[in-house]
Amino acid sequence: MGRTAMASGERGAVEPPSLTDYMLAVQHPRLCFPDDEALAASTTVVDPLGPVTGSGVFGCVFRLTSEDGALTWAVKCFTSHSDARVGRYRTVCAALAGLDPAKERWLVPMEFAPEGVLVDGRRWPLVKMPWLPAAPLLDWVERRKEAPAALRAVAADFTLVVRRMEELRIAHGDLQHGNILISAPRRVRLIDYDAMYVPALAGSARPERGHRNYQRPEPVPYGPFMDRFPARVIQLGLLGLAADAELWDRLREDDDRLLLGQEDFEAPDGSEALAALADSPDPQVRAITAQLRKDLRSTTYPLPPLAAVVTEPVLARVPGARPRPAPDTRTDRAAGRPAQPQPARAGSTAPAPGSASSSAPGSAPNSAPPREPHARPEPTPAAATAAASGWVPSGGTPRSASGTSRATRDARRPVRRVWKDPVVLLLSAVLTLLVALFGVFLVLVDPAWSPLP
């Protein structure tokens, strides 16, 4: 395919295979994985969109199962070149090999093969991990955003994981929703070790910045404490939702974040999300929000460690907290839905928008009584272990400009719901498959044909 170099760093690879090259190659495991007997005898899982289960800036992930179906692996192949990748992965693997996965619950066993995948006669590196029966963080949170006890339990376990890794002088390097899986019973597992720091890498350059919606605008040094800011962002998001589930729909401008995003870090004083969290009825949420603001202003390193999670906080309305904005009826009509009254925040004595301001709570049909956070239902054990998923790295969906208004976000939400409709997804998958088959047909008929001018 016109590539001029081999894969290993010593031979100076310049142009690794593309996503399409890998998609074609992995459908023939015996040819693609000549040095791994298990992968060579496996079957590639293919859905209507093809064999790839996830792709990002640096690579793509495929799912393969053993002949008897008892074992399933996630195989990551790289679509970008890095001279330091082979040496870094060998160092990271050597450090992790000395850890006990039974004790380090966050750890997912990993194998790195510097020449593990064969594409077009050349060998390229791959990473192999077991496919976990676990849910990606955002999927898990969306199903349990009304279960505060579950959210606080995961926040507490996540905090323990980050603290334990600091004890080992290990940092993940890219803590974000796409690299966090939740397994039963509410245990945090970390995947994608591309940017990991281990003591043997001291003095090395940071291989990547990390997800923009979790990293501080002013980057911190590559070292054992570099996860503290993104970890605080995640801890704050989980605890903020536990205190007020409505923040999930109110603050999220896109599906590429938990609650906070890059624009909140770049302009914290004007951030609606940080202001809402600062008004939280949970005192620990208010304290973490204040610390996050200090982190953004700090010029010292390392940042303070994560605070311990209070799993049964006493919730109370903040005196002088800003009232929740009333719904924009013009936006509701433009989005094709009637204007809805908004319930009062937990702990508030003010009537919900749309009710008579002079009436007592519960005296008018349109008024909503204060919600009891602890009255939210806890998911059943069966629901907690359902919807197993695997290793799917974040692809980095472009988000809206930081100046997007709340009314504009509300108008966009019905569109996102439409795209989650199973019928729409199926039609989209069929159309994509037909286009791909047509392109393959043209290449077979005329090998010199190219969609590019």
Verbal overview:
With 453 residues, the protein is of the alpha+beta class. The protein folds into 3 domains: 9-130, 2-Layer Sandwich (Phosphorylase Kinase, domain 1), CATH 3.30.200; 135-297, Transferase(Phosphotransferase) domain 1 (Transferase(Phosphotransferase), domain 1); 421-453. Helices cover 34% and strands 11% of the residues. It is built from 15 helices and 9 strands. Strands 1, 2, 3, 4, 5 and 6 form a 6-stranded antiparallel β-sheet that branches. Strands 7-8-9 form a 3-stranded antiparallel β-sheet. α6 runs antiparallel to α7 and α7 (228-243) runs antiparallel to α11 (283-297).
Question: What is the structure about, briefly put?
Answer:
34% of the residues lie in helices and 11% in strands.
